[in-house]
Specification:
Elements (H helix, E strand, L loop, with lengths): L10 E6 L13 H10 L4 E4 L2 E2 L19 E8 L12 E4 L22 H10 L3 E4 L2 H4 L3 H5 L6 E6 H7 L5 H9 L5 E5 L13 E6 L4 H10 L2 E4 L4 E6 L3 E16 L4 E15 L8 E7 L5 E3 L3 E2 L4
Parallel strand pairs: 1-2, 2-4, 3-4, 6-7, 7-8
Antiparallel strand pairs: 1-9, 4-5, 5-6, 9-10, 10-15, 11-12, 12-13, 12-14, 14-15, 14-16
Length: 309
Amino acid sequence: MRPGAFFNDGKFYKGNLHTHSTNSDGVLSPEIVCKKYKQEGYDFLCISDHFVGTFNYPVTDTTKFRDDQFTTLLGAEVHSGSMLNGQLWHILAVGLSMDFTPSNSPNFTPHDNQETGPELAKRCFENGAFVTIAHPQWSGLTVNDAETILDAHAVEIYNHGCAVDSDRGDGAHLIDLMLSQGRKLNVIATDDAHFRTNDFFGGWVEVKSKLNEPEHLLKSLKEGNYYSSQGPKIIDLSITRDKLEVETSPVASIILVGYGSASIVKHGNEMKKTVINFPKGAKSPWVRVIVIDQNGKKAWTNPIWTEEL
C-alpha cells in the first residue's frame, strides 16, 4: 500500500500554513512576508493572522501576491472559549472565506458568552477550511481538551516559532494519544512566523497536487496527500503488514511508531532506500513514519491505519 501522497498524480509543492503579518502581531507586511517565502523557494503560503477584535478580525487577503510560480491560501488563526487551563483556544483554519463571521473574541482573553473552541472549529470546518489544532505543547493543551474538537483535520506536530522561542514546539505526544483513541487525524509542521526572532523557514508541508492552485492544494490537504518536514525529503513510501519500504533524501534514521510503546528503528549513514521488516506478530492499529537526517532535522508522514493495508 502506498499512501496517496506517494502514488497520486501531481508533484510536491512546498508551503507554510501558519504565519503572521502586521495585520495582527507580526512585524512585516503581508506583501513582504509573501516575498520572503517566495524568495526562499516556497511554492505557497497561508498568512494566518489572529482572528480577534484587537486586529479587526482579519482574514488577510493575499490574492494580489499570487503569480505563476507562487500562490497563497487564505486563512486565520481563530480564537474563542477556554481550554481546561483557562486560556484561549488557538485553532488554525486554512481556506477560510473572507466573509467568515467573527466570533465574539475581542482580545486574547476568554470571555463569558463566547462560543467554545469546539464550536468555532466546527464553524471553520463547515466553512470549508482545513482545520488544525495549533501548537498543543505551547498552549498547555491536554488530551481531554483535544477530545472535544470533533471537527479537525490535523494537529501541529511541529511549530517552529514555539520551538525557537519557548522550546514548546512538539505535538507528537498529543497526536499519538489521539490516534490511540481511534481519532483519525493527520499532522502538519509549520513556522508560526512573526519575524520578531529566527522563527521562520523551519517547518513546512510538502503537498502532492496536480496544480499549485489554492483549490487543488486545499483538496490535497484535506485528503492527507502530503507529508511534513524540517528538511528531509520523503520521495516514495510503501507499507504492508510485513515491511516498510521508503525512499528519502540521505538520512541517518528511519523510525516507525505505533500504539503505546510500539516502535521500530533503523539507523545508518546517508540512507536513501530503506527496508524495515516487521517482527512476526507485530500489531498496531496505526503507524507513523519519522525520518531524521544527519543534522537531526525530521520529516513526518501522516498516520497510516493498518486496517487499510
